[in-house]
Amino acid sequence: MKRKNRIWIGAGVVFLVILIGAFRIWYVQSISIKSIKLTSPHNYAFQEKVDVELSRPASLYVRYWKKGEQEKYRTKPTAKAIKHSVDLLLLDTNSEYEYQVVIDRYINSNSKVLSFQTREQSPWLDINWMLDSRPHDPEAFGDGLLMICYARMPGYIALVDHQGAIRWHWQVDDIGVRAATLTPRGTILAMLRPPKKDVIDDKPKEHRKILEEIQKPMRRGKIGFAGGTAMAEIDLTGKIRWRTSLQGKVEKDLIHHDIRMDENNNIHTLYRTEKLYSHEVDGQSVRDTLVGDGIVVLDTLGNEIWKWSVWDHWDLEKDSLLDEFGYDRFHMNALNFDRDGNYLLSVAMEDQIWKVNAQTGEVMWKFGKNGDFKMDPSALFSFQHAIHVNAEGDYMLFDNNLFREESRALSFKLDTLTMTATTKINAPLPTEKYTSRMGNAYLLDNGNLLQTSSKTGSVLITDRAGEILWELDSPYVPYRMEYLPASCWNNYFTQE
Hints:
This protein has 496 residues and is mainly β.
């Protein structure tokens, strides 16, 4: 009896194995790949698009690797569908890759191993960003990419790696790109501007010319257009999500200097606002138009949500500089969010950072020269740019210091109870890297600093003392550089 039971059990196991095998074969073959097609969007050598058609709806991903290398990558699974388009991003140019399409189910099924060859870099993107005489420590750079914008036409945004190679590119033919920044949803927000409105001053300066410029008065007429007439959002595949003209949407049809997206996908930016002003000249009353700045919040269609004007919070009677600087009284050149959601403004003409309540418009405090905080006099800044809260929770900016004639990265810990400012980072650049306009300073994930000396065309990674560890040389003036860490691409591909 026991022997018969063993036979029946054995037969049952064999039958179950056959049944599972048959089910597996049916399951795998129930969805098949009908076609695989490769294209290169925009004819870029560093990007491929894999178009796949299945016999039935299913999710899939692509596993790919550089031929002969162990490191493999996989794209994020797609939604269930019959037709799929999968982008392979940040590929090395002039390289052979192998890949498989994987149908993503309980039991995956793979295509055979296929291959493709990327082209050599396109000539118009083969820019010599690096000079052999400059330091280029790859460990100082980290694993991210630098974002640089070209404000002439055709405008573009490029992402550059530690070797100076362009790994990503987005181009717009009819307008320039003034500035761009990463959004909370992992896309790129761009300020677009017509080059003809700007003062032509986009060539890096030699050290001798910088020294000559320093000798000139601090302000010499209007600073230039420095703004945009449109805005756009681009995802990291290079696809434009939307583009909005600002004509009829904001005063003067333009925004300037900075553009930010919040968690609700609304756009926060700066605009120019005017005010009529009556004053006495030689015993007679004269009416002038003062030019100032404000904050405007827009949706992605350009519809106004909220607006703030500096003139609503400024005492004209106590201002002794209106006659001299009324044409550009404040020159606000940076806008960002504090940790509590209120605004941080760089007010260049006052050599101050202001915190503005995002609900009431109240100026909550002023930091810097003649401000509300006690601070080390040697850390006073002037005509500063790029105010933000860094990863260490400190207030960080780029000091264009017009009086010290020295550019540097600064960060501060502000105590709003004792109203004191403690200097945390003071990283001056060499004299030959001085820039009296533009520029930025950011803290990288590895603890180093990204600093942009715009007028010299130098993009620098320094330590916290200001020692240069890595340098990029731009053939044109880079207004502001941002660093995109490798984690930005996690929504598109990951390493296996």
